[in-house]
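Just scan my protein:

. . .
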Amino acid sequence: MLFLVVLSGLGLTATLLFNRTKKSASSPKSLQFERLQNQYLTVYYLATFSDWLQGPYVYKLYSDYGYKEEDIAFLYIAGFGSSSIFGALVGHIADKYGRKKLCMSFGFIYSICCLTKITSDFYVLLLGRVLGGISTSILFSTFEAWYINEHINHHNLSPEWLHITFSKAGSFTGFLAIVAGIVSQICAETFNLGPVSPFLLAIPFLLISSYLIARTWKEHSYSSSSNHQSCVAPLYYIFVKDPILLILGLIQSLFESVMYTFIFSWTPIISDLNPPLGIVFASFMLAFMIGSKVYSMLLSDRCPPQFILVLTSSLSFFNLCIVALVINYMLYSTETSSSSKIFLIQVCYFCFILYEFSVGLYTPVISYLKSRVVPEEHRASIANWFRVPMNLFTCVSLMLNQFGEHDMSDLSLSVVVFKKFHLIYVMSSVFLLITSSASVVFYQKYTQRHCREESFNESLESPRDIELAKDKL
């Protein structure tokens, strides 16, 4: 009943926000912008929908094949590890040889990954995880890099219009995640096609996305001599040339490390409530959608994106810190009754809802800020370098989840669960505290730079002077 009430409340809130947004939003009247946005979002929605289709049944598929928890954890680690190892190379290839070509390859590589799920052979599944890591590196870096280059450098559209595209991408992918979860369950459970069916169902969507890229996308490369440098050249920009870039990279790496760790750590915490996982997942995605819509409303009220980054980082820290404290209390308190325990777990669930709301705020704002800070000639490469620490931390979290499992046989199941995940939530809270502090520093430095650029542009006499000044800068 609790989950239905929460879901109904979130649904009503989402409806009100969507209606208000339709009335108040002033979309730019540009056929060129609308055409480019539709080209990008159509492909992006297909790609993310195919990715969401696979999520609910990855663990169950491996479990049905007879693999133990430590084997499944190793397969997960292989996916995140391959994304770290090959991510920088993927970004370098995209920046040097063309982002459109690499985005086209995404559908084919991910389709092969899905096909590996039809066999129970461990090494074939391992290969699939490696290909999946490469595919997600392309999806979450190269797609966005292609769009930003087309929007700003080729079509010369207003950078402020990027907010509209990223907000739409965030809110509608949340809706697609709900639909994908329902479709996956219908295929696997209702039609009794088994946990491999969602992976096979994803293949047509992946191939259609590659086809649409080939037919509708154009490639307008950003010409720069730095494109001929090695794949580690972007590290010079991150660590030496631009301090703001380093701060933003730290924020993204730490925030998304926690975000991906949360994916596999929320279920055990609320398991004593016997929750309907589909409804819980739907409530998370609705909160995510609301966050994306609130982002659009905050911008319309002239709230700068760098302040929204501080807001979402602080809100995330506050909620997961409460979860860590609640788990700590339940582990070490000797006076916790069963009713008190249920109440505390419900508190964790509401904190998870608010955390997903903050993720909905984060997704569009980090995309916009990267579009303004990351240099175009290394956009895909730097985006993948930002993801390296995130993947490494997720691997560490998976290993911590397994560590110490064999010396807890004398404890109850719930105590074992809380002990295994307590350290993960403490580390997540520490990471988000660092993220919040870094966001404040970024807010100050980015605001100062933005003010200097505006003053500098106003001092110039003509658009030609502005272009010459930008070249010198």
Remarks:
- The chain has two domains: 35-220, 235-473.
- DSSP finds 16 helices and no strands in the chain.
- The longest helix spans residues 413-459.
- Residues 404-411 have pLDDT under 50 and may be disordered.
